[in-house]
TrEMBL record:
GO terms for molecular function: acyl-CoA 6-desaturase activity. PANTHER family: DELTA(5) FATTY ACID DESATURASE C-RELATED, FATTY ACID DESATURASE 2. It is an enzyme of class 1 (oxidoreductase). Residues 68-337 form the Fatty acid desaturase domain. It comes from Flavobacterium arsenatis. Its EC number is 1.14.19.3. This is Linoleoyl-CoA desaturase.
Length: 361
């Protein structure tokens, strides 16, 4: 990882101090750092849906199509547990106790397949600090299929990436389960990400998690569902592809959209302060819609999450207007779109990155 320094602009610092003061006034007298009743209701709702649908997989009377539908519901609701519980737990905003957050984080990722500890480390130590900065934000590392940033080298196949991207996105979760996690665990390139973490503990948790995950999503259904292993495996693969698309739809456009910044430092310094950097690189979608927050675990309020990661996501609905008003007052960017507009903007971005004249920085 290449360490960077943020700009120390006084004007931008005044903006963020004003924003923080207004947000704290808005949330005064509320316990905002930990999960409230809304947080627990939502997470437990998806947990109930997830494991109830899972239990029905072992019924004697269901058909193959019913098994497939129930499995998809199990996978999708499991993903939403990760959004509702796991994301907050990774930021220690579910419980006051860090160990309790770690347990919830582990359990809420069980049906997703991505190792929760490794994901949490790269999410907080890399992405939240240096969003969209090549060489510092792991989430925009070069990949062999898509050119997502102008800092990535162009190849002729990228001309068509806006057309084949959905097929790539169908394999995102499976790629993380079977490849990315193992690279993050074993590669010395990511040693910086794991500093301060017991290596023995990291390996133990990793393999315990993978055993629990594969037992839950494959072994138990194969052994006890009454359907052939081939059908269960096919169901797992297709459900993972469908779930992966939903995951991508809700998240990919929050940083990879037409108009997003991909800052590169001049020397050791980035152009903006940390807070303004987050605004230049993030996009909200339907931030004022309760259904969107319910499904996404607050990930649709991306500016609020990046600026205030230590506030539980169920409070974002109360501070979105404050962020919009304050950014307008200080003439700072605030990107907000509907879900459809964000996805359209994402594919517009893919199309732009697919053109050879979009030069590297």
């Amino acid at each position: 990882m290449k360490a960077k320094y943020f700009n120390k602009s006084k004007e931008e610092k005044v903006f963020f101090s004003t924003l923080k003061e207004r947000v704290h006034q808005k949330l005064e007298h509320k316990n905002v750092a930990y999960g409230d009743a809304r947080f627990w209701f939502k997470g437990l709702f998806w947990t109930l849906i997830c494991y109830f649908s899972y239990s029905l997989l072992f019924s004697d009377f269901i058909t193959k199509i019913e098994f497939w539908i129930l499995y998809v519901v199990f996978q999708l609701s499991g993903l939403l547990i990760g959004f509702s519980f796991g994301h907050d737990a990774s930021h220690n905003t579910a419980f006051k106790n860090k160990k309790a957050n770690a347990v919830l984080h582990f359990l809420s990722f069980l049906t997703v397949g991505i190792d929760p500890l490794l994901w949490g480390l790269r999410h907080i130590r890399s992405h939240h600090l240096y969003a969209n900065v090549e060489g510092s934000d792991i989430d925009i590392d070069k990949n062999p299929f898509l050119r997502l940033s102008p800092t990535h080298p162009w190849q002729p196949k990228h001309r068509y990436q806006a057309y084949y991207a959905p097929f790539v996105y169908m394999f995102t979760l499976l790629h993380s389960v079977f490849m990315s996690d193992w690279v993050y665990l074993f590669s010395k390139e990511y040693h910086w990400m794991k500093r301060g973490i017991s290596i023995a503990g990291l390996f133990f948790r990793f393999f315990l998690y993978k055993v629990c995950y594969f037992s839950l999503v494959l072994v138990l259904p194969i052994v006890f569902s009454g359907f052939s292993w081939g059908f269960v495996l096919l169901t797992f693969l297709t459900a993972s592809a469908f779930t992966s698309l939903v995951f991508i739809i809700m998240l990919v456009g929050t940083h990879f959209f037409d108009g997003a910044d991909y800052p590169q430092p001049e020397g050791e310094f980035l152009e903006h302060t940390w807070a303004v950097h987050q605004l230049h690189t993030s996009c909200d979608w339907d931030a004022n819609k309760s259904w969107a927050r319910f499904l996404s675990g607050g990930s649709n309020c991306h500016a609020a999450h990046h600026l205030f990661p230590n506030i539980c996501h169920t409070n974002y609905s109360e501070i979105n207007a404050v962020i919009e008003e304050t950014t307008r007052e200080f003439r700072q960017p605030y990107h907000h779109k509907t879900l459809f507009e964000m996805m359209f903007s994402h594919f517009k971005h893919l199309n732009k990155m697919g053109k050879p004249q979009t030069n590297n920085f």
